[in-house]
Every structure is written in C-alpha cells, then in structure tokens.
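Request from the bench team (R.T.):
"We need a structural guess for the complex before ordering more pyridoxal-5'-phosphate. Sequence and SMILES attached. Just send the tokens back."

Command: build protein-pyridoxal-5'-phosphate structure.
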Amino acid sequence: MFDPLKLRQDFPMYVNQVKMQGKPLVWLDNGSTTFKPYSVVNAMLRYDTVETANSHRGDYDLCYAVDQEVLATRKAIAKWIHATSENEIVFTSGATDSLNLVAYSYAMSHLKAGDEILIDEEEHASNFLPWLVAARNTGATLKFIPLTKEGRVTAENLEKSMTSKTKIVALAQVTNVLGYRIPVKEFASIIHRYGAIFVVDGAQSVPHIAIDVQDMDCDFLAWSGHKMLGPTGIGVLYGKYSLLEECSPFRTGGGMNNKFNKEGLFTLLPPPARFEAGTMPLAQIYGLHAAVNYLSQLGMDNVQAHETELKHYAVEKLEATDNAILYNADSEAGIVAFNIKGVFAQDAATFLNSRGIACRSGQHCAKALNEFLGTPATVRASFYVYTTKEDIDALADAVLHGKEFLDAYFN
Ligand SMILES: Cc1ncc(COP(=O)(O)O)c(C=O)c1O
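Reply to R.T.: structure attached below.
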C-alpha cells in the first residue's frame, strides 16, 4: 500500500503548494481531471525539448525514436489492460472522441432502421449523445434500461430490455455521478447472447481499478488520459481487433491510408493506424506512457483499496455532520454525491471554494440523471491516489458549517 501524503512529493501541484482563495488546496474533483506527476510532465518535456520529430514521417534517427516511443506506449497500455495485442489500442483525443469513433465508425455502418441501441439515463453526455446521433442518422431507436431505485443498472433489467433488435449496448463501467460499478463480464455474456456488441465507457473506471479486457469480454472500451494522471488531449479506444477491422474511419488524412490517387482509388491501413489520421498528439503519448508506468508501479489493486477506504471514511464523516444528503452511500467508487441540507449545490460548491476546497457541482454532464434523483443538482467529491483523510475532514467540517454560513449570507 502507498502513503498518499508521500506521493504528493511526486506532484508539482502539491510541491508548489498551489492555493485557492489563499488557502491550501483541497482537490476533490478527480472525476473531472487529475494532477500530473513529474514523471508525466518530464516525459512530455522530453518530447518537446530533446526528441521532437513527427512520427511515421521521416527516415532519420529522431523520427525513429518517436516511432519507438509511440509503439512502446501502445504496448504498455495493451499490457496494462490485458489486450491481446497493441494493435487493439487506438489513440484518440479522449473518452469523448473514442465513443464518437465507435458511434460514427461502427454504428453508422452497421445499424439500420428498426435496430435498437441501449443505454441508461445515468450516462455522461459523451456516452449518450453519440448514440442519440447514431440513432437519428440510421433510423435506429435509442432505448433506456430502467434503473433500480438506488440508480443501478442490474443484469435483470438489462436482460428485460434486450430484444432481437438490440445491436449495441453502451454503458459506463463506473458512472460519473453516483459511482456505481456494473459487472462487465456478466453483462457481456447477456449482450453477446443476443448478438449485440458491448461498448464500455471506462472514463471513471480505467484510472481506478485493474482492467482485463479479455476477461471482461467487452467489445470496445473508451477512456481519457487526463483522468489517470496523464495529459489532456489524449485518450484511448480499445477494440477487439476483428471489430476494429469492420469499422470505417470517420476521419481521413495522412497516416491512415495505404494508397490513393485521382481516379478515386483509396485503400486503408489496418487498425489502429486507420483511425489515427493526421499528426498524433505526440507529447501527450509520451506523457500517457509515463502515467501508465506510474499507476502500474502503485498497483491498481492498491489504488482501488485506497479509494474504497476513503469512500467509507467520507460517508461516515458526512453522515456524522447530520447536515448532508447522500445519494450514493453504498456505491463502489471513490465518489460521493451529496447536497448540504437546504442549500443549492452550486452555492455549496462556492462556499467550499471559499475554504479552498474544489468539488464539482451541478449536473456533471449526466443531465438525464437529476430527474431520476429528484434534485436539480448535486455536489460531487471524487478521490484519487493523493487524496488523504485530512482532505475529507476539511470537506466534512465545511459541510457541518455550510448551512449556517449560507443562511447568514443569503438572508
Ligand atoms: C463517465 C464519463 N464518460 C465520458 C467522459 C468524457 O471524458 P472526456 O471529457 O475526457 O472526453 C467523462 C468525463 O467526465 C465521464 O465521466
């Protein structure tokens, strides 16, 4: 197990003692983005200061070095998530881009009028809107798996929603507001029995738990680098190779074609290159490799154990204030969705900010969920490897005093 306080020595945002409102920063918005360790920053700096060249574009040593690093990153990611080959790893600009890639490159060419896509009302906009658009463009229907009263998707409800028309099921492995985790392997076996494919949004899971895509048997898995200590502007789409081969790219350009001429001949390179048109975000690929190394060294089981402990601690502390409404006390992830009693979420977050505490408030891009929760907005505290119990103590103390302060402020 690691000591989160010691880890902070690896993170410039802590070493530089960044403050908010003149107070030491309490960063509890890791579901939104995460801090980058020096190893990630330095890897990006290496590309920009001593190894700058384009990839696949030159016959000289520097270009070769960049190509080698891109390949090494792909291999490291494949190993980390137990993909069968690095050719199943597509670099994208983030989870949103990865999910759009599947919607445009797979769904648009495989769906027809009358087919069904299944999601649920808890999904992030990035795993909702691409399917809405795919359904509109193909005449397919977007259907919603009913949630339990706590907000979970169960195997029973999934099975009840499946029909012979279901072609795609797209779900978050861990949801971004309530932090519920689905049993991917069990769901995959149900979905595959109906001949449909399973697209998993891993934005809130891949950074936090050990992933084995072969065991999970999902068909696609999408996530972002910046939520796992890596840079912004880089993400990954894992896809089973045979399915990637069935996808026609929705972005064309250099680096993805085999041949083209003015008579209209146009042939594609095999995956993953066919989805990576144009110059790739190379510094970000260097950074992502360093982030994978950093997390591998910590051990994903340790990361998960740390966050589980923090989650239990946070629930206990927030409940003890008697001043918080908790929406997901029993969810698996290191995410707490709550409101301060009688206080609008955005006012609560503004008050937390005045104490140097960064929490997300609002609808968290899951706009359909609030109707389900029966509240216009929630506050979300989300944890990561460098989060300490003292951070949570600071949050609980603020929640304890939040209502008095805000009553005085607004009356
Ligand atoms: C569940 C989920 N899916 C997708 C995304 C989109 O990620 P990005 O904005 O990095 O593309 C997020 C971001 O918050 C998320 O939480």
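Two things stood out. The first helix runs from residue 4 to 7. The chain has two domains: 4-30+299-403, 40-297.
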